[in-house]
Amino acid sequence: KQEVTQIPAALSVPEGENLVLNCSFTDSAIYNLQWFRQDPGKGLTSLLLIQSSQREQTSGRLNASLDKSSGRSTLYIAASQPGDSATYLCASGAGSYQLTFGKGTKLSVIP
Amino acid sequence: NAGVTQTPKFQVLKTGQSMTLQCAQDMNHEYMSWYRQDPGMGLRLIHYSVGAGITDQGEVPNGYNVSRSTTEDFPLRLLSAAPSQTSVYFCASSYSRFMNTGELFFGEGSRLTVL
Questions:
Q1: What's the mean pLDDT in A15-40?
Q2: Within a 10 A sphere around the Cβ of B107, how many other Cβ atoms?
Q3: What pLDDT score does A95 carry?
């Protein structure tokens, strides 16, 4: 059974800092790896989707990488802003019909 | 384009009552699913569907029923609510039934409290 772990559970950084969020998974036979953002009381919004054949994806200030052999993915946020404060979740698609989610990293960007 | 719409947003039930959480999507997505989100447990899959007339169980299906009579709608039924079903429920959909290429789009959630 796929297990997805995100460390740390919470992170606080000053505005403008570059930061990295980590995601690890136990089953390397994944189809894809997705990163989501969740604001308090809201649903999840997809940020980046990396297919198993890809190494990274970029969207604006966000860059996600995937290393299947080590079972790791990272989400890099450049020049963090207070509006980036949210919970970030990663999820891996190891089976055809299911995603397994990590418990998330709660990010606080301090002005 | 409304995306994934869930109703109601909030609901309070008494133990033993039944109710249906509604989910509708207007993106012609094949894949639809229901998750519950609990503190410390993360998101867990309840049921999913890969097309009209096709449903299957996820990780935590007990106490819940689903059906998929149309592409657009995927209701979640609680037949006899229990306090353990107090949670936030999310409906999510994807254009790809195989989940290996498409993004997952989420609704805003339905917060359920069972007394």
A1: 93
A2: 26
A3: 65
